[in-house]
Amino acid sequence: MDEKKKIIVTGGAGYIGSHTVVALIENGYEPIVIDDFRNSQKAVVANLEKITGQKLSVHAIDCCNEEAVRNLFASEKPMGIIHFAAYKAVGESVENPLMYYQNNLQSLVVLLKMVKEFKVETFVFSSSCTVYGEPKGAISVDEGFPIAKAFSPYGQTKIICEQIIEDFHKSHPEGKMICLRYFNPVGAHESALIGEYPIGKPNNLLPFITQTAIGKREILTIFGKDYDTPDGTCIRDYIHVCDLAEAHVRSIAFLEKQNRGLLDAVNVGTGKGTSVKEMVDTFEEATGVELKHQFGPRRQGDVPAIYANNEKMQRVLGFTPQKTIRDSITSAWNWEKYIHENESSK
Ligand code: WQD
Questions:
Q1: From the CB of 310, is ligand 1 less than 6 Å away?
Q2: Is pTM, for the whole model, over 0.90?
């Protein structure tokens, strides 16, 4: 039996990272997780081992620690890297921009050094639709859309990281690299053993909905109902985290097959828009739980409508998202109930 291909997954105990670890194992890869648990729970590792039925290789290393990362690469000699580890809270990045620039940029530089030193064949970077800024007027965004000045230092780190990767690739043209630009990741694994675990008050919509429904939050406020959209609330492209995870595995497989170096960027979304009100209505209909909600003022920085043109993902990665909004919502609700049962049993 030939040895499994090792893929370094930084931030592998995080929301998208943990779901990608499952998808990698299901596709015959051996994920090597780097996570110092500053933004994730150690319990995720045990649950990943429950889901996959195998022991995980996990290293509590700070990706900015070049010596520690180099020692790991020297011993593991991975075929690929999927780099998730980064700070990602928009609001926090405004309060603490230097922490974001130092961590998100330095960790990437360290990993790119490893690509060169250890001739790592494939590299997938966790980027975001936030690099498009506020696409004026446009609703369905493709990869040719101009990269705009981001709304937050968090978004700006994604733009700068893509630029660092582009400049690195010019010096290392044999590298096979992809930047995946996520739209709105939602939902949880069907086991309800892993999912999005917001630390403190959630920024994102679906965790706020499920926390309100479980009684952790008083009421959901819908930020604005006077937008120029069919029901007046904002429209987004919500993609199930398991589809997003699969897109990462497809990216590694696609890069492996290339016989020359390349660098590309791919949007990862469903290609469909869903409004905030539709998310609320679908939640109530799918779960039978009434959701206390009210309408409030617009949130600064929100764009009225944005969703992915995901034609390139389908063409390049040969992947079309399989899960529905209803799947995302019911899986997120099951995960919220799992958290509640476990928190209340502590
Ligand atoms: C979605 C919609 C809100 C909460 C963010 C990041 C982006 C990316 C995805 C990382 C908006 C509305 C929300 C609430 C509400 N993350 N809302 N009441 O802002 O589209 O994108 O997550 O890459 O970088 O910016 O997602 O979930 O915060 O908001 O009405 O209590 O839900 O106004 O219209 P967003 P979100």
A1: no
A2: yes
Cα–ligand 1 centroid distance for 34 (angstroms): 27
Joined together, the tokens standing for residue 51 give 């889901």
Indicate if ligand 1 lies below 6 Å from the C-beta of 88. yes
As given in the structure block, the two tokens for residue 146 are: 């101009």
Decide: 16 in ligand 1 pocket, CB within 6 A: no
**Which phi and psi (to 5°) does residue 266 adopt?**
-135, 130
3-state secondary structure of 167: helix
Strands annotated E in 121-218: 122-128, 140-141, 176-182, 184-186
Instruction: Answer whether 90 contacts ligand 1 (Cβ < 6 A).
Output: yes
Ligand 1: nearest atom to the Cα of 299: 33
Catalytic residue among 15, 87, 132, 154: 154
pLDDT tens digit at each of 346 positions of the chain: 678 999 999 999 999 999 999 999 999 999 999 999 999 999 999 999 999 999 999 999 999 999 999 999 999 999 999 999 999 998 899 999 999 999 999 999 999 999 999 999 999 999 999 999 877 766 899 999 999 888 899 999 999 999 999 999 999 999 999 999 999 999 999 999 999 998 888 889 999 999 999 999 999 999 999 999 999 999 999 999 999 999 999 999 999 999 999 999 999 999 999 999 999 999 999 999 999 999 999 998 888 999 999 999 999 999 999 999 999 999 999 999 999 999 877 6
Domains of the chain: 6-186+239-269 (3.40.50.720)
For residue 154, indicate whether it is catalytic: yes
Structure tokens that stand for 271 in this block: 């290609």
CB-based contacts of 259: which residues, under 8 Å, 6+ apart?
none
Name residue, tokens 């075929």.
79
Determine whether the shortest distance from the Cβ of 128 to ligand 1 is under 6 A. Answer: yes
Rounded to the nearest whole angstrom, what is the distance from the C-alpha of residue 340 to the centroid of ligand 1?
Answer: 23
